């Protein structure tokens, strides 16, 4: 019970962090959750929490979502999900996934502050959708990976935050049917997930 309350409090503050700066909250929450959950629990529960956080941000900034980027990204998501499910189903990925999570955390903490924007043509967000949805199933938080692609001089601050939130909503939404298919029992964690979602 104490652990659950602690994680719920952390979810509240990390979602507030994401609401203010647009990202990083999911990675901080993921880092904290690794102390409490095994990998097969970690990613599904974290995904449900981040889904709530990103849905709320997307709704509040819905008029600022860049629709061409969003739909280009969306077209790639099914392919990334299919690759991720195939790997998780047929190979023992837990040790590799933890390694990727460690790399993600170190990248978030120590990446250069002034990374050049990766201004790709809008149709290539299709490829970003593939990679982000694939990584989402393995490591959970893909915000830091996606962020440089949205830091463009042709997007306003609100468009950057709204569009990234919208694409991350899709990534986290796809985790629920994916992990149900892989045998995760969300009903065993429903009370904790409700608390986390409300906090987010």
Any overview of this molecule?
The chain is mostly helical. It has helices at 2-21, 25-33, 39-60, 67-90, 94-110, 125-139, 143-150, 157-181, 190-199. The radius of gyration is 16 Å and the shape is globular.
Features:
200 residues, mainly alpha, 9 helices, 0% strand, globular
Average residue pLDDT = 85
Number of helices: 9
Which regions have little confidence, pLDDT < 50, spanning 5+ residues? none
Total strand segments: 0
Shape: globular
Helices and strands, in N-to-C order?
A: HHHHHHHHH
Largest sheet: none
In short:
With 200 residues, this protein is mainly alpha-helical.
Helix-strand layout with pairing:
Blueprint: H1 2-21, H2 25-33, H3 39-60, H4 67-90, H5 94-110, H6 125-139, H7 143-150, H8 157-181, H9 190-199
Helix pairs in contact: 1-2, 1-3, 1-9, 2-3, 3-8, 3-9, 4-6, 4-8, 6-8, 7-8
